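We emphasize that the prediction below concerns an isolated chain of 51 residues; any contacts that depend on oligomerization or on bound cofactors are therefore not represented. The input was used exactly as deposited, without trimming of termini.
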Amino acid sequence: MVRHEVVDKMIYEEVEAFLEELDKPYCAQVFVRETSTSYLNYRAKLGDHHG
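Result of the prediction step, given as a token string:
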């Protein structure tokens, strides 16, 4: 079973890779709903984005 944190990071990396092709936008965070009352928020460390 893949942990939600791993899924969030994978989504972030995929979005960031796509955005690198555009004119300097970057993905600031990924917000994922785990359950009806639980959310996960993934943010890269400062300087890790490619923007």
